[in-house]
Amino acid sequence: MGTTSYDFSNEVVVVTGGSSGIGRAIALRFGESGATVVNADIDEETKDPGGELPTHRAIEERDGDAEFVRTDVSDPDDLVAVIEAARDFGGVDVMVNNAGIYIDRPFREVTPEEFDKIHTVNVRGVYFGSQLAANDMIERGEPGSIINTASISSNVAQPGQVHYDSTKGAVQMITRGAALELAEHGIRVNAVAPGVIATEIMEGWSKGATDAIKNEELVKRPPIGRAGVPEDIAGPAVFLASDDADYITGTLLDVDGGWQIF
Q1: Residue 258 lies in a domain
Q2: Would you name the residues annotated as active-site residues?
Q3: Which residue, 9, 16, 12, 248, is CA-closest to 130?
Q4: How many domains does the chain have?
């Protein structure tokens, strides 16, 4: 797995949902790159198998700087508090809107309450996380980068996921629309679109995703032949926030092992 390094020294990175899975991997990679990381999650402890330390503690163990801010991204007041916490370190330079939930339910069985819950977290959290971070950057005169976690579900419909797919389609359009409006302020907005990734977004899914591919139980098998791991997403996310991506905005970067090419 690649270990390309970037230098984010003296930069502040906020990662929502940074305690586990993709968010944790992204937060750790930014920490390794010298950033001060603010983990904004509803839970401090990680759900990752084998994870021993909370994300901010793991970064500190590696001589990095990090802080945990308990955050429910569906609550705009919590998001405001996260931005204020980042201001204590100088302000947001990179905002990673990663927090999300998944509910496995056929189209005909989704309740209004479930629909509202998943959209409140997966869509409203991304929208206002992006808005508040952008306002902070503009007020300080320090244009930065916003990275959203979308999905292959942004473009591909899958059985039992209409409600989830609709949230990720919305994330793609928030990314594109915000990129259009914020370009005049020098702020870039992009998204990563993971494929089948072994995480604990549902209990047991990290093993389940891997087993499903091994046993060819998925609708189709990624050409690369394995489930992705959170670290597969961390590198692309950090790249999109780096100077190497200065001419990239409004982009959805597929990180799916080739799942969508056939």
Answers
A1: no
A2: 164
A3: 16
A4: 1
